[in-house]
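hey so u asked for the seq, here:
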Amino acid sequence: MFSSPLLLGAIAIEGYAVLAVELLAIRQLTPYVGNATDTVAIVIAAVLLPLALGYESGGRASLAPGDEAGVRRQLTRNLLIAALILSFGLSHPFLAAFFAILDSLGLTHRLIQAAVHASLFLVYPVYLLGQTIPLVAYCSTSASLPRSTGLMLFLSTFGSFLGSVVSTLVFMTFFGVHITVALTLGLLVVLAALIGWQMEGHNRLVLTTSALDLYIVAINSPAAVRAYGIVSNNLYSEVRIVADPAEDSRLLVINNSPSSKVAAHPEHRFAYLKFIEKEVLRRLDTGRPHRILVIGAGGFTIGLEDRFHAYTYVDIDPALREVSEKHFLRQPLSPNKTFVPESARAFLRRNTQTYDVVVLDAFTNRISLPPDLITREAFAAVRQAVAPDGQVIMNIITSPSFADRFSRSIDATVRSVFPFVSRQVLLETRTGSVASVLYVAGRSEGQPHDIYTDDQNRSFLDY
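ran it, structure tokens below
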């Protein structure tokens, strides 16, 4: 049906690469523009439309049916150019520099940044990869068009299936995002070398592909990643450790957002952590161990020195405990602390016990807010996890003066579930127009209350 099995294999590899690139782009952009639906939609659009245009363009190539040499030349060129451009758009050193340049130019809106990145580094490479199927079709030796078309679509879709599953559940999970980038782009380069091997000038092709492969491996190597302080980079988060020798402290940065801090002097810790320890944890009755749930584990600093009460930390990143103990805390968690690596909503949905204190600490990154945790339904699930006499503390980076729509909306959402809530603004954390704001509430279910009016005012009885 086809003159070369290798060309058929190229279709499957193209399908794998396109899906892997799409997922890698979403993951690599998360620390800079977040992973909300709108930014993900930009990435998906920057893949689907160029892919469609590539299909159409490849079908109009100036090639004669059966011109395998011409097909090989075009495929080799496409694969090498695509791998080179993608190496800029998916590798951490270039991403860090690129977004620093956008910030310096005043292009700070996350949707604009996502659109610029996708336009420069995704559109053209995917367009080139999209030409693979129609180009290979020129080498079909079968008179049965439906059969050859069905085979090519099967291989492309099967490759896409492998790209979505293997790149995330295997490579990102066990080897890291940077290694996944190197493997995906390296696969394109190796494929280009194999396809172009029979062409004239293959010695030059070997040198070109070897140099490109070495470059891709170098900029995505563990050493290159460690140079930025990155200690973990899996499909869930990018984790960096930033040390400050002046105050003898370490900062845990998750997806470009300061998440936790440990310091030799207690006053150098985060203000909200000091507030929670002083106003909540130290006021707990020591007659029995209390159950404390922390959603958004960070660096496990909430209750770090407490060896009495029982703590349960929930976070979606399963590597967080090992990373924190080894690189951030530099000590193991005490036996009274349990880590549950799971989505917060999934944990709350199956949770059957109540907690004396629930700390919701997942809203410290305004770029990458977890959309599934800022809804009324999510807060209702949190309320169900609070014991009747317990309390919930939510740390939210927002405007203290309700200066933007988000601050007003999140406040109204919280109060729709916890109507009797106190709001503590930690002004010392203020940066620009936002600061750390703590919401403290109980379950507040069934508590009697009235609305005082001029006609009916019983305040003198209630007071």
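The chain has a mean pLDDT of 90. The radius of gyration is 27 Å.
lmk if thats what u needed
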